[in-house]
Specification:
There is one protein chain. The radius of gyration is 25 Å and the shape is elongated. α1 links the parallel β1 and β2. By secondary structure, the protein is an alpha/beta fold. Helix content is about 40%, strand content about 20%. The protein has a six-stranded antiparallel β-barrel. A five-stranded parallel sheet has the order 2-1-3-4-5, sandwiched between helices. Bound molecules: manganese (II) ion (MN). Manganese (II) ion (MN) binds next to loops.
């Protein structure tokens, strides 16, 4: 399981010597108070650590270098309580390799109308101090999140918390390892990509493993461990009678438990954070891994099917961002449509591999034939997903850049029961409507595989995309197809030119 409290965000306040030691002491006191309040905020999942106020180029460079080297520091929050001449920041920002958010706040919420004097004005001047810092950041063409408002406001803390979650996911991706069992599903385009480029730009490595390597782990699983996992299944799920001990298909459940344990051992041994499978390469496996994949996803592993390593890494990032939030996050695929004039909807599912973190009720553990792959009937968890606002996100390789597209959707219960559908599923209405959403998604080259989350907002993904230097496209209630087309054309130009700026 992933623990975000192990991570720190450093609170760095800029100022200058001109104000004298008394004012600087006050600046430091205020900054400490703010850092502490942010650290204790229920909306910020990491520790916010106060750092001494910086007033020289040397001190700024030093704190940025320290942040780069600090293992648990996922990023910086910067704030200019007073004026901090921004040429002092050039060397530090050039060196800084961690993401940062620029908090544009003021210690005092209100203007003290009756008492305000020039001392107050000189102390509380972030209104222009932060603009000077903003100019430098923009002049250097640096990506950062700007959060505006009083530091005690819920909205400000939520926005910083959202960014901190994205920074944690970015930190988690650096040096992360993803295992690919088998290659890509043959002839599929969108799941391909440049793994070298991804490692250079996104920090994670993807390597292939022969299915035989996994089979070795699976064959070594002991009966005692299988017994223990079967007991977990019986405790956690509604297990159909034929799969229960003594049932006619109990052996299928034992095969499923063996695959789960083997997969888990393989991933733990290699310190992997996610993996892909493909039904075209299952030599030595009794069945396509379904149940085990579902449960590993619930434990925080990134996963995508058919060799789709970009989506596996995306699902892992979404898992990290959503730690402690209500809802759930899963690998997903737009599967089939309800195109009724009375309300068009998408039914999302996959052959097997949907994460039970999004289940509305206790999942049913069942076994059914799989019409693809030519293996024994795989065991799987079947359930309906929860309702509520959700996001669907995909990452594609566009040749000269990585593109993320996100659709805001509203998940809802099925119109009627689905007694013959043997897989976990989610139903949603995409914003602004299915016609606009699907047209925009397709024009963006959006993948059929996604990360689906009832925990995250589009803001989490936008913050992550910005940190990662990815193009970010949002399809939401305000999207029109003609406006979206223009955005695609402008972005093509922008990303062609931006490297020269
Ligand atoms: Mn698929």
């Amino acid at each position: 399981m992933i623990n975000l409290k192990q991570f720190e965000v450093w609170f760095v306040t800029g100022s200058q010597h001109l104000y004298g030691p008394e004012t600087l002491e006050q600046v430091a006191e205020h900054s400490k108070t703010i850092a502490q309040a942010l650290s204790q905020s229920k909306n910020i999942p990491v520790n916010v650590v106060f750092k001494p106020v910086v007033v020289t180029p040397e001190a700024i460079l030093e704190v940025c270098r320290e942040a780069n080297a600090a293992k648990n520091c996922v990023g910086l929050i910067t704030w200019m309580h007073t004026f901090s001449p921004a040429k002092m920041w050039i060397a530090g920002l050039q060196a800084l390799q961690k993401p940062w958010a620029h908090l544009h706040t003021q210690y005092n919420r209100d203007i003290p109308w009756a008492d305000i004097d020039m001392d107050f004005m000189n102390l509380n001047q972030s209104a222009h101090g932060d603009r000077e810092f903003g100019f430098m950041s923009s002049r250097m063409r640096l990506e950062r999140k700007v959060v505006v408002g009083h530091w005690q406001d819920d909205g400000v803390q939520t926005s910083l918390g959202t960014w901190a979650r994205a920074a944690c996911a970015w930190h988690d991706a650096q040096g992360a390892r993803f295992a690919r069992f088998g290659d890509n599903m043959r002839e599929v385009a969108v799941t391909e990509g440049d793994k070298v480029n991804a490692q250079m730009r996104l920090g994670y490595s993807v390597n292939g493993y022969g299915i035989g390597d996994l089979v070795d782990y699976i064959n070594e699983v002991s009966d005692a461990e299988i017994d223990q996992i079967i007991q977990e299944y019986l405790d956690q799920y509604q297990v159909v009678p034929s799969l229960r001990p003594g049932g006619s298909q109990h052996q299928s459940l034992r095969d499923g438990a063996r695959i789960e344990a083997g997969l888990r051992h393989f991933l733990e041994h290699g310190k992997f954070k996610g993996f892909t499978t493909t039904f075209e390469d299952l030599h030595g496996l009794a069945q396509l891994p379904g149940l085990g994949v579902q449960r590993l996803m619930a434990d925080g592993y990134g996963f995508a099917a058919e060799g789709d390593w970009k989506t596996a890494a995306l699902v892992r990032a979404m898992k990290v961002m959503s730690v402690g939030l209500e809802g759930g996050t899963s690998f997903m695929e737009d599967y089939t449509y309800h195109l009724s004039q009375s309300g068009m909807k998408v039914l999302g599912a996959h052959m097997l591999e949907i994460c039970p973190s999004i289940a509305a009720t206790k999942p049913s553990l069942e076994v059914h034939p799989l019409s693809i792959g030519g293996k024994a009937d795989p065991v799987r968890l079947v359930f309906d997903a929860k309702s509520g606002p959700a996001v669907n996100a995909a990452v594609m390789e566009m040749g000269n850049r990585l593109r993320m597209v996100v659709n805001q959707v509203d998940a809802l219960p099925a119109d009627e029961p689905l007694p013959k559908l043997p897989v976990a599923r989610a139903l949603w209405i995409p914003q602004p409507d299915l016609k606009t959403s699907a047209a925009a998604w397709i024009l963006a080259g959006g993948a059929h595989h996604t990360g689906f989350s009832l925990s995250l907002t589009a803001e989490h993904l936008e913050d992550f995309a910005e940190i990662a230097g990815m193009e970010f496209l949002l399809i939401d209630k305000d999207t029109t197809v003609s406006g979206f087309k223009k955005e695609l054309r402008w972005n093509d130009l922008y990303y062609h030119l931006a490297k020269g700026i």
